[in-house]
Each structure stands twice: as structure tokens, then as C-alpha cells.
């Protein structure tokens, strides 16, 4: 079995696309209307795929859950923290280094979903 993608229902498609493109670094693979009031965008290439789903005819009350996060590997946590701060985003928690070979921190996406940026440190 192969994992295909993670679907995130979003409050604002443009705001979410900007976050996942500019902050996470995912490119839009495809974007389309799935009916008159539903828009879908797939981001990422290779194994990493995120699907954004927006319903423009529904008053969105998105509940992403407090104990769910998506993790993305970065070359340097310290450089990513600097980048996040330059973009005006808040670090939600961390950085943490629970073992010598891993370091990570969390931010929130525009919908309140926890996004983890992790550095795998070669010893």
C-alpha cells in the first residue's frame, strides 16, 4: 500500500496556497473546480502530496484537530526558523532536540494545522 496524499479543508484557498508554496516549498501540481462551489488544489511532487479543498458556498468552520501535524524535512532548522520569522509567522513551539540526530519546531498553517519542520542531523 502507498500513501497518496493528505487532504486539508481550507478557509481560504489563496491564503493556504501561498503558505504551502512560499513557506513549505510545495509547487502546485494541479488546481481545478470540482463543481460550481468546490475548488481543489494538489501540491507537491514525488512522494509528498497535499490536497487543499475549498467549498466557497459553505460557511467554513474548520476543525483540524489539536493532535495532528504534518512534518516536512528541512536542511537546517535554524535557517528555517529565521525564514519563518522573516515572513512574519509565529513559531508555535520549539525548537526541540530530543536526540542528537533530530531537531524540529512547529508553526500553524492558515487553517490552524500544526506544521512541523524537522532536520535530520548526520552524526
From TrEMBL:
Residues 2-120 form the VOC domain. It comes from the Bacteria. Gene3D superfamilies: 2,3-Dihydroxybiphenyl 1,2-Dioxygenase, domain 1. PROSITE patterns: VOC. This is VOC family protein. Pfam families: Glyoxalase. InterPro entries: Fosfomycin_Res_Enzymes, Glyas_Bleomycin-R_OHBP_Dase, Glyas_Fos-R_dOase_dom, VOC_core.
Amino acid at each position: 500500500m502507498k500513501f497518496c496524499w493528505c487532504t486539508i479543508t481550507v478557509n481560504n484557498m489563496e491564503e493556504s496556497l501561498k503558505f504551502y508554496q512560499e513557506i513549505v516549498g510545495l509547487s502546485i501540481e494541479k488546481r481545478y473546480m470540482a463543481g460550481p462551489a468546490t475548488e481543489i488544489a494538489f501540491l507537491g511532487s514525488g512522494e509528498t502530496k497535499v490536497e487543499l479543498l475549498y467549498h466557497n458556498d459553505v460557511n467554513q468552520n474548520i476543525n483540524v484537530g489539536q493532535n495532528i501535524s504534518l512534518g516536512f524535512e528541512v536542511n537546517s532548522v535554524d535557517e528555517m526558523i529565521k525564514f519563518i520569522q522573516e515572513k512574519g509567522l509565529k513559531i508555535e513551539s520549539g525548537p526541540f532536540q530530543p536526540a542528537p540526530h533530530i531537531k524540529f519546531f512547529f508553526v500553524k498553517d492558515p487553517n490552524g494545522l500544526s506544521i512541523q519542520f524537522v532536520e535530520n542531523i548526520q552524526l
